[in-house]
Design goal:
It is a single chain. The protein is built from five helices and three strands, in the order αααβααββ. It has 114 residues and is mainly α. The protein has a three-stranded antiparallel β-sheet with strand order 1-3-2. A hairpin with a 2-residue loop joins strand 2 and strand 3.
Length: 114
């Protein structure tokens, strides 16, 4: 089946979805949720647990589902996180297949929560 896409973002999402079977998406999602639950139990006021950092990333996401380095930097500052950079967090999320680059300074979540 051949499809046409109006812009590169739609094409990138289609390629990403085609290359990432639903079973793998479910596995990644369940692992992330499992890690979030474990991290939530061990979170301290001074620690930068995974759930705290993930919460900052979600809070930095705008109403259109877009995340930027600037918005994440603001959220990390509000939480008092100085040891972890927004560039590092976004890079790790890209590597893990959680974020997809939208343009030069914004990303979108691969799997939107429902």
């Amino acid at each position: 089946m051949v499809s046409e896409f109006d812009n590169s973002r739609l094409l990138a999402e289609a390629v990403s979805n085609a290359n990432l079977p639903k079973e793998i998406v479910q596995d990644i999602t369940s692992r992330l949720h499992s890690k979030d639950k474990k991290a939530a139990y061990s979170e301290t006021n001074q620690g930068n647990s995974r759930s705290k950092l993930l919460r900052a990333m979600h809070d930095a996401t705008n109403e259109n589902g877009m995340l930027s380095i600037a918005s994440l930097a603001d959220e990390l500052t509000k939480l008092g996180v100085v040891e972890t950079s927004p560039d590092y967090l976004i890079g790790q999320a890209e590597i893990e297949g959680v974020l997809l680059r939208y343009d030069s300074d914004s990303w979108t979540w691969l799997q939107q929560s429902s």
